[in-house]
Structure prediction request, 88 residues.
Amino acid sequence: MYAINYAHHNIKIACMQEENKKYTKALGERIRKLRKDRNLTLQNICYKNFIEPSTLSRIEQGTVEAKYVTLIKIAKALNMTLSELVDF
Prediction:
């Protein structure tokens, strides 16, 4: 029989989730800054690239994690590669 320290695992999971939130927030802020630096509106990016404006807004606010395919579309709309978008 194996003994599992659930409290320890819960702490590790909570730390990982907190780290994910920080990265999600930072990525959203980067996307918003890049978009505004290029004088693009949410609509400019979204309708040309088949992204819902509400989705991009939530990504920029850091309230949701972007899907891989969505990040590729955002990078394309900003005239950059995905690696350039997430390299910060």
